[in-house]
Amino acid sequence: MDYMALTNGDRAEVLVQALPYIRRYNNKIVVVKYGGNAMINEQLKQQVMEDIVLLWLIGVKVVLVHGGGPEISDLMKKLGKKSEFVDGLRVTDEETVDIVQMVLAGKINKTLVNLLEMKGGKAMGISGMDGRLIETRMKDERLGYVGEITKVHIQPVLDLLEKGYIPVISTLGCDRTGHAYNINGDTAAAYIAGALQAERLIMMTDIAGILRDREDPSSLIPEITLAEAAALHEEGVISGGMIPKVDCCITAIHQGVKNAIIMDGRVPHSILMEILTDEGAGTMVKGE
């Protein structure tokens, strides 16, 4: 639908149809995990920021959690350092964790904050190290400084929400000695959403959601329960890179999040489609 081609009456009708969803999510917390192609593609990045600011303006308390793997790899390459991965996780030595901190808490975080401000929002960037937001320990010695989350001290995020900010969180953590750790972005988003008792966790990915047939986009499964997720895992429908994403959704739900969505971040305005329409976008994972 070309919104510019609509009559004023049509435009008013679109807004009225969104009213029940605006009412439902007003003053509720929605956590968005942002990454993948939607972060790399400049046009999509602009649209994601517009979606977040629009939701913020209608009273949704949006928390943006971001990663930045491709930009970390790019900087490492420029510095002559090779990226290594074990089981999909970046091996993070002392030098690499410094690079991760520069990219995530520096360049990407502040760029996103600035974009949100330019779109008319009020944003504040923090990392998981600020206020000891994400407390960690070493996940596996083979991975180096890759953290396993042991505790989330959510008060800094609540303070920002109370003051009317959109918190923008980079996925770093630190242990009790103060050492920085690289944290998987999906895992961090799940724990943060759980600590906030969020209404919804939105996981932006580079695929449509959970497909019954990976070669057929029309085989999208719009909604699954935790029990159905386990069955689909056994059948091999949930496999590969989708396994950790579904696991993060399940973790969030166990911690009190109402439901979690795995959606295609490559689709323009997919966040608004999910929150403000009855069709939604992607696959919803919900409790029993």
Question: Explain this structure to me?
Answer:
The protein has helices at residues 8-25, 37-40, 42-57, 69-78, 94-118, 155-162, 185-196, 226-235, 242-254, 270-276; strands at 29-34, 61-66, 85-86, 89-90, 123-127, 134-138, 147-152, 166-170, 172-174, 180-182, 200-205, 223-225, 259-264, 283-286. The chain is an alpha/beta fold and 288 residues long. The protein has an eight-stranded mixed β-sheet, with helices on both faces. Strands 3-4 form a two-stranded antiparallel sheet. A hairpin with a 2-residue loop joins strand 3 and strand 4 (89-90).
> Can you tell me the residue ranges where pLDDT is under 50 for at least 5 consecutive residues?
none
Oligomer: single chain
CA distance, first residue to last residue:
36 Å
Quote the beta fraction.
15-25%
Q: Give the strand order of the largest sheet, numbering strands 1, 2, ... along the chain.
A: 5-8-2-1-11-13-14-12
Order of helices and strands: HEHHEHEEHEEEHEEEHEEHHEHE
Taking all Cα atoms into account, the compactness measure Rg is 19 Å
